[in-house]
């Protein structure tokens, strides 16, 4: 079998619009697993958010969370890799985001923190399944250690903030959007591609033996290294242009249909 590992984004990919993994998709993945194919989620979501899905725990493959900031076994909690932001840089970025009026959503030790309790932080908390904890000391929260930081704003302001960070040329960070409203900032050594490489090495699987499937711009790094890159039909045209194959939408079991085509 050519492909030994399937790396799947979560939102807009494995999950449908109801934020569920359909029974059909689960059955197809389970069938492929019995044939020896490994499946792993590669998501911007936090570890606690991914752990809410029992199906993922039962896959038996470590999950990649925080856009690559952490690789963890969801069933045991064993951490295989974790890399956060440098504390001094994190403190500066927190202050920058606050000064620019964005709502700060950040993760430290698998807990969700925010600088303000507003509609945005509450909405993000519902999505992640964790109520936000308010912080008012940028130095203290940065020193505690941040796995990932998000500047949550309008889509237009996010694009402005990307240009702003581009102009600063901070060589120790990596940033991307997982949603038009989320500017996600991680350590430079962190990306979905780098974490997927690490997971492949863990199993002795080469990039040529990996299928990566996603829908967002934060998926582009892992799509670029995979032996087969697959875009969801609901992905942007920009993402589709960078992929080898386009499957159906996340609401029409696109992941399952791709697995049937290439893994069964």
Order of helices and strands: EHEHHEEEHEEHEHEHEEHEHEHEH
Bulk shape: globular
Residue runs with pLDDT of under 50 for 5 or more positions: none
Number of strands: 14
- Backbone structural class: alpha/beta
Rg: 18 Å
Helix-residue proportion: 25-40%
For the biggest sheet, the summary is: 6 strands, mixed
Describe this structure as you would to a colleague.
The chain is of the alpha/beta class. Helix content is 37%, strand content 22%. The protein has helices spanning 23-34, 47-51, 54-57, 87-99, 119-128, 138-144, 155-168, 192-203, 220-225, 237-241, 254-263; strands at 5-8, 38-41, 63-65, 70-72, 79-82, 103-108, 111-114, 133-134, 148-152, 173-179, 182-187, 210-214, 228-231, 245-246. The protein has a six-stranded mixed sheet with strand order 8-7-6-9-11-10, sandwiched between helices. It has a five-stranded parallel sheet with strand order 2-1-12-13-14. The protein has a three-stranded antiparallel sheet with strand order 3-4-5, with helices on one face. A hairpin with a 4-residue loop joins strand 3 (63-65) and strand 4 (70-72). Helix 1 (23-34) runs parallel beside helix 11 (254-263) and helix 4 crosses helix 6. The radius of gyration is 18 Å and the shape is globular. It starts with a strand and ends with a helix.
Task: Describe the secondary structure blueprint for this structure.
Elements: E1 5-8, H1 23-34, E2 38-41, H2 47-51, H3 54-57, E3 63-65, E4 70-72, E5 79-82, H4 87-99, E6 103-108, E7 111-114, H5 119-128, E8 133-134, H6 138-144, E9 148-152, H7 155-168, E10 173-179, E11 182-187, H8 192-203, E12 210-214, H9 220-225, E13 228-231, H10 237-241, E14 245-246, H11 254-263
